[in-house]
Amino acid sequence: MARYLGPERFGIYSYAIAFVALIGFLGALGLDGIVVRDLVRKPSESPEILGTAFGLKLFGGVAGAGIINMAIALLRPGDHLARGIVAIISAGLVLQSFDTIDYWFQSRVRSRNVVIARNGAFFIISLIKVGLILAGASVVAFAWAVLLEIALAMTGLLLGYRFEGQSPREWSWSFQRARSLLEDSWPLILSGFAIMVYTRIDQIMLGEMLGDKAVGIYSAATRVSEIWYFIPVAIASSVSPSLTEAKQIGEDVYYRRLERLFRMMTLVSLSIVIPMTFLSGTVISILYGSGYAGAGAILAIHIWTAIFVFLGVAQGPWTLNEGLMKLSMQRTVVGALANIALNLALIPRYGGIGAAVATLASQSLSSFLLNGFDRRTRRIFSLQLGSLDVTRSLLRSSDRHGW
User: Fold this and answer.
1) Among residues 32, 211, 206, 11, which one has the least CA distance to residue 107?
2) Which of 152, 173, 194 represents a domain boundary (last residue)?
3) Which of 32, 157, 227, 380 sits at 20 to 30 Å (Cα–Cα) from 307?
4) Does 178 reside within a domain?
5) pLDDT at 391
6) Is 203:218 a contact under the CB 8 Å cutoff?
7) Are residues 164 and 275 in the same domain?
8) What's the structural domain count of the chain?
9) Which residue, 83, 64, 75, is CA-closest to 25?
10) Degrees, nearest 5: CA angle 12-14-16
11) Residue 286 burial by CB count (10 A; 0-12/13-18/19+): exposed, middle or buried?
12) Is 77 exposed, middle or buried (0-12, 13-18, 19+ CB in 10 A)?
């Protein structure tokens, strides 16, 4: 698809997706984990919990879509193509209010229907995109494909919910419940926004400062770099219960397991980062073609962000166990602000390479360096720093102690 559209049209498409994602956090309102928690604790109150969450997400989606379209009209008053694509994609925020059904499946550990719905929609839309390429379709058609994928996934969730003998007609609204949910979720709303700034603001700022072609080239690099980020999430999810158990056993066992986790994350990230640094140009050429040649140098820098992403994800279970979610939110906000400031300073002079440096610096600040300045996280900083001693990590990774 990137080859077919070319850097400029692919840049417009990527810019629109980034723009919607930046404000799209309003559609989720940080409710995901909180709603699942409440459904597990109080299954008899599911209709009220689901109905209230749906109402909040619907309001957030409508408000978010409205803000997005007003913002793009102010930023690009004469760019009807960008405004049209943003308008189409932002409509998906309203449809995603039906994601509430996913929370019900999560609370009952029934992921089968969710996987079928989402992967089925992805497969169908992938075929449609192939057809659009063969038909020589415009970039606007691909925006409609994004919206259609969301609609198909939500329809699949609804059908799966009905298959389980449930119906949204049973849901109910409660102002008291809404207030309770929002009181718990507001730190996560801010964190969600800060995370979106981390991952999307560089593309938006590139588009405003240097144009859509620069966004297309930069997006090609970041898609290759960020594709690896599912790995630390999978590792952290698998060892998180063991870490929670270790905390109950004792501090020594707890922090010894954390040390192993940080070592593992560092070694895995380096096994990705080092080869990708030297092969970045070749990888970009094979995947995207000569039109994206400038993305190779960007990828060689941006890929190093993975080290700090892996370390940050590894810290996640510890943060939850210690009840330091507000501290995590503050770190994320600081990193996001640093990212904006660095982008303002570096993009005009260095373009996409400057944006990659800004992302690398801000991620290292938020996930690593700031831990050294707070007494509550200083021990974590020491473990992270120790894991970066590759020789020591390799030697100690050979121990046979399990989690």
Assistant:
1) 32
2) 173
3) 32
4) no
5) 53
6) yes
7) no
8) 2
9) 64
10) 70
11) exposed
12) exposed
Which backbone phi and psi does 399 adopt, to 5 degrees? Answer: -65, 155
Whole-angstrom Cα Rg for the chain? 22
Domain that holds residue 118: 1-173
Helix (H) or strand (E) holding 177: helix 175-210
* Residue tagged 């952290």 (tokens): 236
Please state, in angstroms and rounded to a whole number, the distance separating the CA atoms of residues 256 and 348.
45
The owner of tokens 């799209």 is: 24
Q: Please report the pLDDT score of residue 196 as a whole number.
A: 76
Q: Which pLDDT score is estimated for 395?
A: 53
Do both 157 and 217 map to the same domain? no
Q: Measure the CA–CA gap between 313 and 368, rounded to whole angstroms.
A: 11
Residue 236 has a pLDDT of: 82
Residues 160 and 203 in one domain: no
Confidence at residue 396, expressed as pLDDT on a 0 to 100 scale: 58
Distance CA 312, CA 233 (A): 10
- Do 242 and 100 lie in one domain? The reply is no
The pTM (predicted TM-score) of the whole model is 0.79
Query: Burial, 124: exposed, middle or buried (Cβ in 10 Å; 0-12, 13-18, 19+)?
Result: middle
Which tokens is 27 given?
Answer: 């559609």
pLDDT at 390: 65
Statement to judge: residues 401 and 333 lie in one domain: yes
- Angle between helical axes of 139-163 and 100-107 (0-180°, round to 10): 40
Nearest CA-CA partner of 299 in 378, 223, 239: 223
Residues 145 and 53 in one domain: yes
- Please give the Cα distance from 398 to 305 (Å, whole number): 26
Q: What are the per-10-residue average pLDDT scores of the chain (403 residues)?
A: 92 91 76 76 85 91 92 90 94 90 80 86 96 96 96 93 88 88 77 75 89 92 91 81 79 88 94 95 92 93 94 86 79 89 94 94 92 91 87 53 50
Instruction: Please report the pLDDT score of residue 45 as a whole number.
Output: 84
User: Residue 89 carries which side chain, given as an amino acid letter?
Assistant: I
Q: What is the pLDDT of residue 394?
A: 55
Task: Return the structure tokens found at 37.
Answer: 């928690």
Domain boundary among 130, 145, 173: 173
Structure tokens at 346: 């570096």
Rounded CA-CA distance 197/374 in Å is 24
Q: Looking at the domain assignment, is residue 397 inside a domain?
A: yes
Can you read off the two tokens belonging to residue 91?
A: 């409509």
